[in-house]
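Note to self: keep these together.
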Amino acid sequence: MIYIASPFFNKEQVSFVESIEKALNAASIAHYSPRSEGILLNQTEEEKQKNKRHIYKININMISACSKVLAVIDDRDIGTIWEMGYATGKEIPVITISNSSYCLNVMLAESVQAHTIRIEDAIKAIKNNRFRGELLEGVY
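Structure:
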């Protein structure tokens, strides 16, 4: 299973992560997306505050259960960066994707399996079992 770490706070972010979810579905790749679960989107601010520990635990459990993390690094969302660090600490491979041609700093570049800018390349990287530092052709 793939965990999708992504910001989903505006229409552009939601649209991009929805495209990723559809591509994973089309490729028959099991995944968990906090966005598609609607955990946050359907809650008031009061409900979010009340349920934040529960949401945190769900996401921790899902990251721990996944085989890889696909992280959208656009807009440098702090939650996504935290999820990447947690996965790296658990030795779960991380693949990054940017819809805005974002690059990686040295710490992220050294900790990811692949950095991609196209969804089809992210799918290739997910299916590939190379170790960190062995980037795929056409994948940054």
